[in-house]
User: Which sequence fits this backbone?
């Protein structure tokens, strides 16, 4: 057994085990921790597959950013230090039936994947961050140099004739990120409720909502005691 | 430049696809079975990672049976990671708004519109 397989089995075992553990646990902080382990192992799989830049971005954005967001979400929405929400057996049944059906379908589709054709450029060097950056800027170096177009271009006009460049999606994603951040800041802003200023606006405002910040606990207790099964 | 590992025993593509399948199924299960809104968000992250694993494996020069070792799959994986970060930010804002409105994070209590 060479190291390729050894590392793959280690990382795949960590990934699958932590993903299953994240499903099975009921403790939300443990779920977040298992998610960190799972995403880190997936980043290891990316490194093993030669996608170094994607693996680094996975570690930086996912493990460094998204999980921190989830941690803040856990901390800002936890009423008690140990939030446990038990899933009812009928919900587990529904989830297991759906998971088994979907898993059978995916397993069949995976095992039916067509036999591999040998890729022509197997000895090509792995994609480096520099080549990835040039692809984002609109230049496809590997397409220009691997013989599909005999002219060794590399200017923007040649890359445009190949028809694949990632400048426009890159810009779209950046604008999308900006819009999402503004929207998230708008959604999560501390707001003054209308029933604080002009009395009770809706009839549900006093019944189901918590008060405007000074006494949120009785409403929460009422909801929690009324809705538990 | 010859890769030292490229001519060793390569990992077949189906191994990566199986890992992606398990991640997808666990993510779907997490989304259905969890009552915590943050737990549902974690399930969505698992699903997005399943797709990312498949995208990277399909375009990897180290995986036997993948397609051309171009960088399209890696670029798509980067887009998926970026959009997942944006989705997590928006979902966290929605979770905070939900918590402000219902004083709990249990999604089973968010049935005010349910007739």
Assistant:
């Amino acid at each position: 057994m060479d190291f390729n397989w050894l590392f793959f089995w280690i990382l795949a075992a960590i990934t699958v085990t932590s993903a299953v553990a994240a499903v099975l646990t009921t403790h939300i902080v443990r779920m977040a921790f298992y998610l960190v382990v799972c995403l880190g192992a997936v980043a290891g799989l990316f490194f093993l597959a030669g996608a170094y830049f994607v693996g680094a971005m996975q570690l930086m954005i996912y493990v460094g950013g998204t999980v921190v967001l989830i941690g803040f979400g856990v901390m800002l929405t936890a009423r008690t230090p140990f939030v446990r929400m038990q899933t009812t057996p009928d919900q587990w049944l529904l989830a297991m039936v759906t998971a088994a059906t979907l898993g059978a379908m995916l397993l069949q589709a995976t095992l039916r994947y067509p036999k591999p054709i040998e890729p022509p450029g197997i000895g090509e060097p792995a994609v480096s961050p520099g080549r990835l950056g040039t692809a984002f800027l609109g230049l496809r170096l590997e397409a220009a140099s691997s013989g599909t177009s005999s002219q060794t271009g590399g200017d923007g006009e040649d890359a445009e004739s190949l028809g694949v460049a990632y400048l426009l999606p890159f810009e779209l994603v950046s604008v999308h990120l900006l819009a999402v951040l503004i929207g998230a800041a708008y959604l999560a802003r501390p707001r003054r409720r209308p029933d604080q200023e002009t009395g009770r606006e809706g009839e549900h405002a006093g019944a189901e909502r918590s008060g405007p910040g000074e006494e949120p606990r009785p409403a929460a207790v009422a909801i929690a005691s009324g809705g538990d099964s | 430049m010859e890769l030292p590992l490229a001519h060793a025993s390569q990992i077949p593509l189906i191994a990566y696809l199986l890992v992606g399948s398990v991640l997808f199924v666990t993510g779907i299960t997490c989304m259905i079975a969890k009552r915590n809104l943050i737990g549902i968000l974690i399930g969505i992250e698992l699903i997005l990672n399943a797709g990312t694993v498949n995208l990277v494996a399909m375009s990897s020069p180290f995986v036997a049976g993948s397609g051309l070792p171009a960088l399209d799959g890696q670029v798509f994986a980067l887009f998926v990671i970026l959009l997942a970060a944006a989705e997590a930010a928006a979902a966290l804002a929605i979770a905070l708004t939900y918590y402000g409105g219902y004083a709990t994070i249990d999604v089973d209590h968010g049935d005010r519109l349910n007739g």
Q: What stands out?
A: The two ends of chain A are 52 Å apart (CA to CA).
